[in-house]
């Protein structure tokens, strides 16, 4: 990296907090603003989902503080994490809160930002590549495709209490969205699949489970809605994972560019190359 790339980018001032998205894992998906923050921060409070390769871009003398949360395991409380940011900023440090994906997409960045506002701490938000888009792209699955899908729904598989959110209108989601992208859905995949089937989605509709998206550990399982929970368990898949439901999953046979780099033969059979739409 040359200094010229960073010329004119914002300065992380002492006593300020930047809420930054690190993307799904591949350090190549860090934005210039994210790299700029890593080069300046005195302390980096990071999630478990932030890949070590991203943290390697931190200033050599920066202090790394782990603030990761994992379902079913001892984890710091969100309020404590938010107040830690306040404490570090009030100590005059340049604080980087580094989160996997995008801080405002199921990342609780909004809660942390509100705490900073509450305590009069100046902050900046740096968006990141969300796993529900970038992670699926690394699996060769586009969330939109002309004539195949005109809407996408992003939802979370569990709420603040670790259960399937009661507020989700499964009938509305099932009827209104050809593609459904689910974050943090692995633990309750059987219940979620049952809700979608009850709401009218087809048992044979394609599903993909993408684990550790965009990293060297990425694994992709292609299955169906009816078989998804059992297949994921049988394959030994574990979070972090993104689950996607919809006909766009079938495009992976033609668009698995990472697989092609490893020798997989891709095929566009079943899809037109001129209009980009699925054949009847």
Automatic annotation (TrEMBL):
Q: Decide whether keyword Transferase is in the record.
A: yes
Top enzyme category = transferase
User: Tetrapyrrole methylase domain location, by residue?
Assistant: 17-228
Q: What is its EC number?
A: 2.1.1.107
Q: Keywords in alphabetical order, please.
A: Methyltransferase, Porphyrin biosynthesis, S-adenosyl-L-methionine, Transferase
Q: In which pathway does it act?
A: Porphyrin-containing compound metabolism; siroheme biosynthesis; precorrin-2 from uroporphyrinogen III: step 1/1
Q: Does the keyword Amino-acid biosynthesis apply?
A: no
Q: Which domain of life is it from?
A: Bacteria
Which NCBIfam families has this protein been placed in?
Answer: cobA_cysG_Cterm, PRK06136.1
The similarity comment for this entry is: Belongs to the precorrin methyltransferase family.
User: What's the protein here called?
Assistant: uroporphyrinogen-III C-methyltransferase
**What is the originating organism of this protein?**
Xaviernesmea rhizosphaerae
Q: What is the lineage of its organism?
A: Bacteria, Pseudomonadati, Pseudomonadota, Alphaproteobacteria, Hyphomicrobiales
